[in-house]
Amino acid sequence: QQEKEDLQGKLKLSEHLSQTAGKSEATPPPSKNIDLEMKQLQFKLKNSNNEITKQSTTIKSLKNEVQEKEERVQQLQAKISRLERDLTMKRHLIEDLKSRLKASQENEKTFNETLESLGKKVKALAEDCSNKKTSIDSLKQRLNVATKEKSQYEQMYHKAKDELEKKNLKLNNLESKMIETECAMTELETTASQQLCGLAKQSGHALETVQRKLLLTSDRVQEFMTFVKALTRELQHSVQELRKKIKQAKKKGELKACKKSLSQESVQLAASILNVSTTDLEEILEVEDDEETAKTKMEFEKDKEWLQYVQKLLEAQFPFASYLMDAIMEKLNEKKKLVEEYSSLMEHT
């Protein structure tokens, strides 16, 4: 548009110049410079006209495009208005749907709550039903048991009734027999009292004889007890004496062996070193060692236990003869072994 305005201005100038050129023909002829300018201007005008035609064609094409675009814009505006109407409608629909959704959600919440409460109630009712079923089953079982017991008790009642009738008959028979036996008893009592008097006299004599025999047997038992105690003590004493003799024999043998190994001069030398007599030295040599003392203690304890065992056997209930015999035989065997040992030692010495 600016180029167009410039060209129109230039056209106006050229027209003005042509007018002035027409006037100047009456006047003296123009100079060469003016002709050149005129030619230049005409050339420019041609160019400008060409450009104007081009521009006009372009403008027309642009106008057409603008018209098309305006039409398109109008179509688009109509479309936009339609779309806006649709959009508003859709918004209204969405708002309506939202309100409906909220209402349906609230209804769903209430429905869910009611469903939960109903589910709980159903569960509770189901549990109650199961409990009632179990109670009904148990009651049925009890009823069955009760009916069975009732039938059993009825049978027992009938049996008891029959037995009672039988026993009543027996009782009547027994009562009649009792009367007869009472009569017989009175007769027997009279005869028994007479016989008992005679028996009492006889039993008195028999009791006296039994008491005498018991006293004799108790005296004999006491004597037997004293004999057993004396025997056990004597056995223990003899065993202890034998042990002492065996120890003395062993010591004598050891002393003789020592004396044989040691000469008389060495014995005297040892006595002079210890500053004691030869007899004292022999006594020192005869002192028992710890093992021997422990052994003697053990033997003494065993003898004590044996005596206590014999005492317990004598105080125990019958029969105890076999156990007493075993205990005495054990001690006798021990004595026998000790005698053999002592005789062998004596032979060696």
Automatic annotation (TrEMBL):
One of its GO terms (cellular component) is centrosome. GO terms for biological process: centriole-centriole cohesion. InterPro entries: CNTLN. It comes from the Eukaryota. Residues 1-33 are annotated as: Disordered. Residues 1-15 have a biased composition (Basic and acidic residues). This is CNTLN protein. It comes from Halcyon senegalensis.
